[in-house]
Amino acid sequence: METGNNLSESEVILDIQDLCKDFGNLKVLKNITEQIHKGEKVVIIGPSGSGKSTFLRCLNCMEDPTSGAIYFDGVDLTDMRVNINTHRRHIGMVFQSFNLFNNKTVLKNITLAPELVANEVLRRQKWHNRLLPLTNLFRKTKQTKIPITTTKKQIRQDVEANARRLLSRIGLEEKADAYPSTLSGGQKQRIAIIRALAMNPKVILFDEPTSALDPEMVGEVLDLIRQVAETGMTMVIVTHEMGFAKEIATRVLFMDGGTVLEQGTPDELFSNPRSDRLKEFLSKVLV
Amino acid sequence: MQTQIQPKTKGKPGFLRKHWMDILVILVVAFLLFLLFRSIYFRFNFQKKWDTFYYHFVTNNGYRRLLTGMRNTGIIASLGFLIGLFIGTVIALIKVIPPYRKITRYAQKVCNLYVAFFRGTPIVVQLLVGYYIILPLIGVSMTPLASCVTIFGLNSGAYVSEIMRGGIQSVDSGQLEAARALGLSFPTSMIRIVIPQAVKNILPTLGNEIITLVKETAIVGYVGAVDITKFFQDHAANSYEYMVPYLIMALIYIVIVAVIAALVRLMERRLQNGNRK
Ligand SMILES: Nc1ncnc2c1ncn2[C@@H]1O[C@H](COP(=O)(O)OP(=O)(O)OP(=O)(O)O)[C@@H](O)[C@H]1O
Ligand SMILES: [Mg+2]
């Protein structure tokens, strides 16, 4: 199919090689090899306990894989020498239970990480410049100072402006100074999504983003995910919403017993399931 | 409409009928107390006791030394608590690091030993050992006050670490996950997200720790520091009059503890409001 042709050409964002994950004696993921390309919307479905969440959490090493490799931008994240934090900044994650920071206002929830990261970069540049006379003594080719174009205050203004812009995009700008405990589930999850967006990630991982929501709030969250998808964002979504999966996915993975048992476009998978396990699963979820 | 609802109680008769048991009990107790105090009063000459106390305390400027004693109690308890809070937080943090690396596991063993030592021995013993054995051995000279602050800080660090660890574990694990997923480091996530929430949860317990600390400072006289207790001990010994000074000493402690408890409650309410906004 046409998506298949596009895939092989476009850039691979996440390259998962032979991924295994054990919890003690329990083998949860068994030799998964998978590529996720730029702009893809990969939806993962499968019965409970099949390892969907574990797979997703391995992608940004929230769970350390037992063996295998995960290349993100050409860097193997499972390598313990890699500073995982710098890479996680480019991998957004949205949780089933929202996990907004309870001790921070909505605005702070969104700005916290971008501001810390920007300040860290600024600090590192400043120290680089300060130590330059010293470090240059030991260099053959002398380096020059990094031009510093921003200040802490400027950074704060920028991230706050960006956060407010994102908030107004979801129509919640008046909640900027509210605490998460005062928000509805749908509002919390939409803020969690823009919190991930505020980091300008290259890929966003969603773990059952609507499972903890009251039915009447599922729509608003799915709408936002749809909007984000339209911007071309690469996404990996674990969900039990089969209708949404059909609509948004460019590729669906069916996981069972720690492996990707079957995969393809939504049409292929939902209309012509090949394996018995998938048929059985679909007959249960598509009532 | 409103006039239809009349209060049914008609003043005193109702009150008496309702409370005659209580009133009886109060009267009996008051009578017994009266007998007790009467017998005490005739056995002791309180006027003389008070005069002796007053002479030493006011006329002889004893109160100045009391102020020093109160200041020292305050310094030891508050600085000790601050040090304890710092040490306790660090230990609690080390203890909740996932023990993947060897160095983490060693650090955790050291922390366990530390906590076991300071929780497993009486603080008087720690104070005496610290002041009369450790300090001379390592050749450091410290004033009694400074060594008391140090020992109390180290001691309360052990207790605070356990409290803090409980607090950290009471915070939903999703909070740390979300912070880590955003690319914040473990220490940053703990300091910015988890510990503030943990502290809020354990505020009453921390308040109790301060109160415990204030009460425990009563032993610093063992190494020659002058606190409230030491002052009144000396005062009593010098004037050969024990009853009034020790009574006042007890009252002072009660007032201090009550004030701290009230402050902690106030702070608790403040923090809770912060979340309800
Ligand atoms: N931290 C853990 N320690 C031990 N076992 C775990 C852990 N996390 C998950 N498991 C086990 O791994 C298996 C797969 O779990 P996982 O959460 O990935 O399933 P899932 O497909 O996401 O299921 P669900 O649809 O219910 O969310 C389950 O049997 C679970 O009990
Ligand atoms: Mg799951």
Which residues of chain A sit in consecutive blocks of at least 5 with pLDDT less than 50? 1-5
Please report the total strand number of chain A as a whole number.
Answer: 10
Structural class of chain A: alpha/beta
| Low-pLDDT segments of chain B | none
CATH architecture of chain B: Orthogonal Bundle
- Determine the mean pLDDT of chain B: 88
Molecular shape of chain B: flat
CATH topology of chain B: MetI-like fold
The small-molecule ligands in this entry are: adenosine-5'-triphosphate, magnesium ion
The SSE string of chain B, one letter per element, is HHHHHHHHHH
> Termini separation of chain B (Å)?
39 Å
N-to-C order of helices and strands of chain A: HEEEHEEHEHHHEHEHEEHH
The greatest inter-chain interface is formed by: A-B, 34 and 23 residues
Give a description of the structure.
The complex is a heterodimer of chains A (287) and B (277). Chain A is α/β, with parallel strands linked by helices. In chain A, 43% of the residues lie in helices and 22% in strands. Chain A contains 10 helices and 10 strands. Chain A has helices spanning 2-9, 52-59, 84-88, 106-136, 152-169, 185-197, 215-230, 242-248, 266-271, 276-285; strands spanning 12-23, 26-37, 41-45, 67-72, 75-76, 91-94, 203-207, 234-238, 251-256, 259-264. In chain A, the strands form 2 sheets. Chain A has a 6-stranded mixed sheet, sandwiched between helices. Chain A is globular. The relative contact order of chain A is 0.17. With 277 residues, chain B is an all-alpha fold. Chain B has a single domain (66-276), classed as MetI-like (MetI-like fold, Orthogonal Bundle). The longest helix of chain B has 35 residues, at 62-96. Chain B is flat and about 75 Å long. At the A-B interface, α3, β6, α4 and α6 of A face α7, α8 and α10 of B. The structure holds adenosine-5'-triphosphate (ATP) and magnesium ion. Adenosine-5'-triphosphate is lined by residues 23, 26, 28, 46, 48-54 of chain A.
